[in-house]
Amino acid sequence: MIKTRGKTRRGLIVFGSTFGSMAQLARGLWQSDSDKRWLTPLAVFLCVTGLLLILGTAVEALAPFIYSIW
Amino acid sequence: MNILGISAHYHDSAAALVVDGVPICAVQEERLSRHKGDAAFPLLAIEWCLQNARIEPDDLDAVVFYERPMLKFDRVLTCALRAFPQSWRAFPKAMKNLLGEKVWMRGIISSQLGVPGRKVLFTEHHQAHAAAAFLTAPTRRAAIMTADAVGEWATLSVGDGERGSNGTTKIRRFREIRFPHSLGMLYSTFTAYLGFKVNEDEYKVMGLAAYGKPTMVEQVRKLICRTPDGAFALDLSYFEFHTTAKRSYSPRFAELFGPPRNPYEPIDLDTAEGQRFADCAASVQRVLEDTLVELARTLHQETGLADLCFGGGVALNGVANARLLAESGFERIFVPPAPGDAGCAMGAALYCDRIHFGNPDRDLPDHPFWGPSVDGSELARIAQEDGHHVETLRDSALIEQTADDLAANRIVGWMEGALEFGPRALGHRSILTAPRTTEMRDRLNREIKYREPFRPFAPVVPTDVAGRYFDIPRGGTRLARFMSGVFPVRPEWKSQLQAITHVDGTARVQVLDPAMAPRLHALLEAYGQRTGIPVLLNTSFNLAGEPIVNRAVEGYSTFLRSKIDVLVAGGTRVTKRSSAVGSTEAERIREEVA
Question: Which residues from chain B sit within 8 angstroms of residue A51, using beta carbons?
Fold first, then answer.
């Protein structure tokens, strides 16, 4: 039986896992043979943006502060 | 070792469970959620798989996702930047779509199932397609070709696979064609142009193609050209799918082929406009087939192998598959029952088992029935509550009775055993009826399926007599096992198989081995004894816009909302109150038919 977790808990688990995924993406782009190194800062920036979106969705109390960035 | 495979977030999400190297169960989310083409994270499918195998999420050794989300993100980002400034409108949406959820699959799987992140693994999309096609096929060595719209970067790949005598498994990729150059996207663009739903209605284009002539092949060839290395490239000035999510084709495309079809207007094949759309469909179908045949022929020459395993959404094109068999040089072509994205759930799990963990190769059951089983007693209970005529019969009596119904031109909803995995109803969730007259086809279209009149119905026939009614070439039986090939109906039988003979004289035939679905096989034989032709029309048990039924209650609901005459689930037979056929009536029919 799959245990049901709250939205916040799930969001925080996803948030916690993002750093590894981001590092993987950055490493992949940096080492890519098709010369995509220049994409790395943009990709990381976008990922950080996505990360804030997740945080805003998961922890609703933080949402006004996060959305005020934009 | 317990490995869960997941496909999700594009279309047709699914879950499959492999235990000690053998699939135990697999189901598409849409069959449980009842939303056609459900792309959501397949929590219901996962839950059912775990319950069915009686294991907890903690017991899973690995959970494998069917693509690498970060590689996909790389593709979306790169393509958006390449297409700038045309892509500026689509870019924020694409980023929000991906970064708000889809790229963080490790965390999502971990949070939903409670498994540690280290147990979450990824395969490449086309690796999952290749594994689904090769590892489920009863062959030791084969060439492998996969083709779909797009995975991460790859849209088409070729390679080979080998299951060694020492239990090792190898799947090699020789080369791939990358986005935006995609046969799947080419076909989908025409699907959109012809007013059908992309990623869902491509089979309608294939059905429509039979009504047209390939008069626009030269125009289609302007869109796709062969490259000196044997691959192909799309002329992107005719497309917009790579720059916007709104439209697949550019104004230049519409200039070349004329105004697109209004999706809300039916196709009238008696008008010049309707015929133009049919010709368009026939032309793109011809170009798709030609391209696939050339690619497969090269692969055959390169590998010298007799078998080809073909996966990916393009492998659902039965007309192209039949041409591949006839012209590529391969003797047998294996297309799995779920060659599309749903099947990647099983492919990813098998790939992880054999390649990532290096577990020994196993022969796998060669059938498509991996889903939940139907409960006939559930049907008996609810139908009795509603006052319908319910009988619970032994197998032999039920088959005789159903054969009588079919011989009397009744339409039968047929549910038995485990649900099929994949888009085809292969005899466990089928609507069956006599294939003799066009009236029956029209009645099905009008009263039950509520669908376009140009779409054909498929037949099912026992393997041993299939060659009598259909012109199935050597090796075609394998292709027809999961309804993956379109073959000509023999001219002498066309007049007696009108409901399943398409306008071009072909049929997407399913040949049935008794071992695969014994009850349906027995039913075909019983029906054959009554009518002299053991062929039935077999169409999926659903109404337009709904997924194929799963549980007895869903079959019952479909039965009540349509003009299906008889519903069979397990050993239970139900007829509607108003049209209940008692045993006396059945006897009269038997006499009439005799």
Answer: 99
